[in-house]
Amino acid sequence: MRAMVYRGPYRVAVEDKPDPVIEHPNDAIVRVELAAICGSDLHLYHGLLPDTRIGHTFGHEFIGRVEQVGSSVQNVKPGDRVMVPFHISCGTCFFCSRGLLSNCHNVNANATAAGAIYGYSHTAGGYDGGQAELVRVPFADVGPMIIPDWLHDEDALMLTDAFATGYFGAQLGDVAEGDTVVVLGAGPVGLAAARSAWLLGAGRVIVVDHVDHRLRKAAEFAYAETYNFTQYPDIVALLKETTGHLGADVVIDAVGAEADGSLLQHITGAKLKLQGGSPVALNWAIDAARKGGNISVLGAYGPIFSAVKFGDAVNKGLTIRANQAPVRRQWPRLLEHIRAGHISPRDMISHRIPLEDIAEGYHLMSTKLDDCTKVVLTPPAA
Amino acid sequence: MPYTADRPDPAPSAEELRRRIPGWGADLDPADRPSYPKERDDVVTGAHWVLPERQQEREPRERSIEHGMLTPVFGTAQPLHGPAGAIRRYAYERYSEARAAHWLLLMLGDRVDSALSGLQAVPSRGPAALVGGTGLIKQLRSGRMLQPRDPRRADNAHVWMDPLVLAAPWLAGAWITWRVVRGVRRRR
Question: Would the pLDDT of A61 be above 50?
Fold first, then answer.
């Protein structure tokens, strides 16, 4: 099969690889019809996540057609078109049985601090991902869902991670009616979080980024007030001023490990990898939240330490909540929202390219050139 | 004016927000949100087993020492091999995830893996093997190469560092080789 292959930091290609095979009775092999590049794939692309092996195939956002199933699979069959959550879940471990489907303990041999994610290094389990023609889907009775006939394929794709994660993040923030919500980062997850904050009853939604076209998207897609932090001497002071000097009720970090805004943090975190990422957004979240406020962390950080201003979080009595989104828990409600016309996740997509152009896709996504927000890939056989 | 008990930035009315924002307040009730409460035992997972069957371990599979056993299902992509594999295996066998050494060794394994795979590809693909896959060559050929200081680039503040990040392992390798060769010559 043709598949995206990691060759080292900043270097990806599409190469021939052996087809995946059934390795467990509840595996399925899915022929990918659409995949996407996630902002968090850039952390892998830039060599930031430990144990990212040469030859690894990235991609945790994909939909496709079931090609083959293991002997114990009951809920899907060959020919079914399925959307697959970005995380792998067994459905019965201590965590899955409590609804923490993204924190499954039975699928990631390499780490207990993370569940398993398709194509997200061996730190996340060592499973090849969906930026390929075929992908192995473990626990096929738990993760995949048959795509409803009425659902647009690109909406289904956006629900496999980006939109579901943003929606989950707004819930982590415990948004209450009338709350002022600040979202740091106007990438796809930030856009989804901002849009979702309104569903939860926010009274005001503010999005901060430094890429103008993404801020324009935040205004159109998420009806948000926007600020480009490079145009203000101190974005936190500005956020305080615009909230009557109290701070926001809820701040959502939708940036993660490669945040700009502090060159020192960026160099030590994203370039030299001396931190688990550049925690600029997290520090701004702590500073910009009101006392007693909530912080929701969706941004992906590496597993080593980061220079976070924890003292301020304590002194302000903040509640900090974080997790990878348990995607399937979000789907029934998100499908209702799509059907009711409340949301249109596919409007986040900016680029549709063949899988063979993967290197350019990553380059575009990394530099945000050409007004790039979200790249969707089509494998040759799809 | 001193701060008061009132919100300094009151929100528009629910009616106005409903008019302006499609779906505003559809999930207003916190108890009726998909992720509330965080832990709940009524999530239908589709699993029809109590204990999942075990995947066959065809070759020794590394695992975190914080696990009591090899997980019943595991990824089989890119098994450990070569010098990078030895470094990674040592990181897994010796250190828990709580130790910085665990992660820093894994990062070292990544760099060794990257350097060796680049060198191995040179005989078949030429020096381009060391830089291919960045997307730059395609952009150069397509005539759409954008200047490193293109004001539209989001990474202008630190893009100059990327060649250093890419070159650092090679420079370090060249420096170590030079030191070793020089040391051997002096001993003679």
Answer: yes
| Confidence label for B148 from pLDDT (cuts 50, 70 and 90) | low
Which among A8, A110, A343 has the least Cβ separation from residue B114?
A: A8
Cis amide leading into B37 (omega within 30)? yes
Extract the tokens encoding B74.
């595991």
pLDDT of residue B155: 67
CA distance A210 to A261: 9
Determine the residue of chain B that is closest to A326 in CA distance.
B35
B88 with A174: Cβ contact below 8 A:
no
The C-alpha of B176 sits at a distance from chain A's nearest C-alpha, in angstroms, of 20
Rounded to the nearest 10 degrees, what angle do helices A188-199 and A162-172 cross at? 50
Structural domain for B94, as ranges: 81-145
Identify the DSSP state of A12. E
How is residue B170 written in tokens?
A: 């090679």
Q: Across the interface, do B103 and A303 touch by the CB < 8 Å criterion?
A: yes
Contact B132 A13 (CB under 8 A): yes
Q: A145-146 and A225-228 as β-strands: parallel, antiparallel, unpaired?
A: unpaired
Residue B61: inside a domain, yes or no? no
What are the beta bridge partners of residue A35?
A62, A377
How many CA atoms, within 13 angstroms, populate the side-chain half-sphere of residue B128? 10
pLDDT in tens, B54-74: 999 999 999 999 999 999 999
**Tokens 């986040």, residue located:** A348
Spatial distance between the Cα atoms of B170 and B127, rounded to a whole number of angstroms: 13
Structure confidence by residue, pLDDT tens digits, A4-50: 999 998 889 999 999 999 999 999 999 999 999 999 999 999 889 99
Q: Residue A55 gets which letter from DSSP?
A: T
CATH classification number, A166-322, choose in 3.40.50.720, 3.40.50.300, 3.90.950.10, 2.60.40.10: 3.40.50.720
Contact residues, chain A, for B87 at CB < 8 Å = none
Q: Which of A191, A184, A204 is nearest to A163 (CA)?
A: A191
Which CATH number does A2-161+326-378 carry? 3.90.180.10
Of A10, A72, A141, the CB nearest to B162: A10
Q: Is residue B145 predicted with pLDDT exceeding 50?
A: no
Helix, strand, or coil here: A3? strand
- A88 band by pLDDT with thresholds 50, 70 and 90: very high
pLDDT at A105 over 80: yes
3-state SS, A305-321, equals: CCCCCHHHHHHCCCEEE
Between the alpha carbon of residue A287 and those of residues A291, A356, B9, the distances in Å are 9, 43, 18
- Chains A and B form CB pairs within 8 A to the count of 295
From chain A, pick out residues whose CB is under 8 angstroms from the CB of B107. 50, 273
pLDDT at residue number B20: 96
Residue partners of A160: CB distance under 8 A and separation at least 6:
A36, A60, A61, A62, A63, A83, A84, A85, A86, A327
- pLDDT the model gives residue B141: 61
